[in-house]
Amino acid sequence: MNATSTENEADGAAPGGQGNVLLRVSADKVSRLMDLVGELSLSVSEAIRSPDLAGLDLTEFEKSAHRLMMVVREVQDAAAELRLVPVGEVFRRLRRMVRELERQTGKKIELRLQGEETAIDKVVADRLYEPLVHVLRNSADHGLEAPAERLAAGKREAGCITLAAAQVGSEIQIAVGDDGRGLNRERILARARERGLIGAEEEPDDASLWRVIFQPGFSTAENVTNLSGRGVGMDVLNTTLKDLRGRITVDSVAGRGTTIGLAIPVTLAFLDTLVMRLGKRLYATPIDVVSEIFRPDSDQITVVSAADGTEMVRVRDEFVPVCRLQQFYGEAAEDMQPLDRSIVIVFNTSHGRIGLPVDEMLAQQQVVMKPLVGQLEHIRASWGCALLGTGEVAVVLDCERLAEGAR
């Protein structure tokens, strides 16, 4: 980002009497400001929670500390907004590419853009362009039919690809949809069985089957072209979304088209988390994936297989598989607490719900995210580390990959 800059509005009277002016600010400077705001947040938390304050009679301290934390939170939000840019900047670059796709495929393509004003972190926007290029190429090459085929099917001669964006809570949701032929279920299933991704007798539902298209090298194309067929496009999308703490959904109807949905956090710098302890280690998870937290009774617990100790916990009328972090990371199992003496956190994932037993729930707090480096970057199912107000470090769990690996 050394050579990039971001435009942001600054309120105030300009010399010419205008109400708002635009300032061009180096993206490096904005990133530096966000790092400093993160350090400020940690320093304030450490001061407020200092053990030196224990036992002291500080009448007004708690009220002042709460007010200070609220101000720091507002400064964090304001700093994060400085790095937001309209997603339309990415969409407009893609519009130019669609004109080239028309020439290469010989198809008529109408590109519709929606929600161009939706704000997204510039770091996310820069990372999204290449994966979206692959999705559009797949839609143009595989999804949309040739003009004659569309007319024979009673469709408009020109195929339509829609790029839509909207903010939903703390996420940006982007949808890439086409009105083409839809995914070929039989061909995808046959290729998945051929590669051993799905058992010969297994009959997966659509949601499970569509996930195989994100496997490295997976392609159903008979011939490799300069547009598609190498099996790398959707793999790139999947890898990028994992790095951005996002998730992907696929919806396809034969003869009516396919929609790829992407959900990405508005900003990557700060994260609202639930912090927990398991043994001597601290973990954190995004608060928005937590479904519920409870301590199970013995009649809610079921051991499915005595041989491998597979456990399920009943949450009302649903049996939820349990993921033990000790087993997931290949550690000794003798320190594991029985489920009825643990606190179980239930997470919602695209692979279904999973239950994670922990020893203690500590707090809900906004944390500063830092990447794992060196040997630590190979920790499975982790987005990075969270710097806590106490000065401690928690591993941030990626519940999607946790559920995928546990299954």
Key terms:
single chain, 407 residues, alpha+beta, Helix Hairpins, Heat Shock Protein 90, SH3 type barrels, 5-stranded mixed β-sheet, 5-stranded mixed barrel, 31% helix, 31% strand, flat
Q: What does this protein look like?
A:
With 407 residues, the protein is an alpha+beta fold. The chain has three domains: 70 residues, Helix Hairpins; 181 residues, Histidine kinase-like ATPase, C-terminal domain (Heat Shock Protein 90, 2-Layer Sandwich); 137 residues, SH3 Domains (SH3 type barrels), CATH 2.30.30.40. Helix content is 31%, strand content 31%. It has ten helices and 20 strands. Strands 4-6-7-9-8 form a five-stranded mixed sheet, covered by helices on one side. It has a five-stranded mixed barrel with strand order 10-11-20-19-18. β6 and β7 form a beta hairpin. α1 runs antiparallel to α2, α3 runs parallel beside α4 and α4 packs antiparallel against α8. It is flat. The relative contact order is 0.10.
What average pLDDT do the residues reach?
A: 84
Largest sheet features: 5 strands, mixed
CATH superfamily of the largest domain: Histidine kinase-like ATPase, C-terminal domain
Number of strands: 20
How much helix, percentage-wise, in residues? 25-40%
CATH class bucket of the largest domain:
Alpha Beta
Question: Taking strands numbered 1, 2, ... along the chain, how are they ordered across the largest sheet?
Answer: 4-6-7-9-8
CATH architecture of the largest domain: 2-Layer Sandwich
Percent strand: 25-35%
**Rg over CA atoms:** 25 Å
Termini separation comes to: 38 Å
Count every helix, treating DSSP H or I runs of 4 or more residues as helices: 10
Number of separate structural domains: 3
Q: Indicate the structural class.
A: alpha+beta
- Unreliable runs: 9-17
Q: Which H/E pattern describes the elements?
A: EEHHEHEEHHEEHHHEEEEEEEEHEEEEEH
